[in-house]
Design a protein that fits this description.
TIM Barrel, 7 strands, 5-stranded parallel sheet, alpha/beta
Length: 264
């Protein structure tokens, strides 16, 4: 029996590096762990640098002047391990409407193959709401759904990471209404939603059971995302098996491997 059959996954597109200031391990350690786990495709998607207004410094993402080293390191490793595993260079980015085009322009000269949308804040991180912070405010939920959808409609993202990150603890019917509307709107776009294995393994408020019930009812698909901040997070067979059972229960097919865009 292969490692994948035992509970590994074929591909992971959500891997971080030390540059985001809250992950550990070297890129080589992640790659070696993925190979031992039987993984065939490993995509790095560290928290993107963002060209914010002067004066704002983000503490959970790489700096603009680190992108060159990020790309060079991964390009070299991609070449070194080409016979062992398929490596891709991506970034996890929020969709911030007032800054997103500037981010795309900044990345034009780098070998970025894809973006994963992780909507950690509504509006912008310096004047918005952190999506993982508990709230009963319907407007925060509505803003999150609208911004996540607007980002997906740009066509610039491979998928929406932890779509159920928004920590809404208000009325259940309100949650149902907004999340069902989001899922209905996402369906025609044909992209999967990420079932976040980090949140699942650490018993965070996400993944949300009701969200995945809705996703299944609306005919959406899922991709398993390790959201790896340590190399060992790339191989958690028991967590993967449990995640697969949940998705199967709710009728959400898992997409094993994704087709990367020709440009970002």
């Amino acid at each position: 029996m292969s490692r994948i059959e035992e509970g590994g996954i074929f591909a992971n597109y959500h891997t971080h590096t030390w540059r985001c200031n809250h992950a550990q391990g070297t890129e080589r350690e992640y790659i070696e762990t993925a190979i031992r786990a039987g993984m065939r495709v490993l995509g790095f998607a560290d928290h993107t640098p963002y060209p914010f207004p002067e004066g704002h410094v983000s503490g959970f993402r790489m700096r603009l002047n680190q992108l060159d080293d990020y790309c060079k390191t991964l390009t070299d490793l991609k070449r070194e391990y080409q016979n062992d595993i398929e490596i891709h260079i991506g970034l996890e980015a929020e969709y911030y409407p007032s800054h997103f085009e500037a981010l795309l322009r900044y990345c034009e000269d780098y070998p970025i193959e894809y973006f994963v949308q992780g909507q950690h804040f509504t509006h912008n991180e310096y004047d918005g709401w952190y999506s993982g912070r508990e709230t009963k405010d319907e407007q925060v939920l509505a803003d999150y759904c609208a911004q996540a959808l607007e980002g997906q409609r740009t066509g610039r993202f491979l998928y929406l990471a932890h779509p159920d990150l928004i920590h809404y603890t208000g009325d259940a019917q309100t949650y149902e209404r907004h999340m069902r509307a989001l899922c209905k709107a996402l369906k025609p776009l044909g992209r999967p939603l990420e079932f976040n294995l980090l949140g699942f393994a650490e018993h965070r408020p996400y993944p949300v059971k009701r969200f995945w019930e809705i996703a299944g009812e609306e005919g959406l698909t899922a991709v398993l995302g390790c959201d790896a901040h340590q190399p060992e997070a790339l191989y958690r067979p028991q967590i993967v098996q449990e995640a697969k059972r949940i998705l199967e229960k709710h009728g959400v097919p898992i997409v094993r491997e994704l087709e990367l865009p020709t440009h970002v």
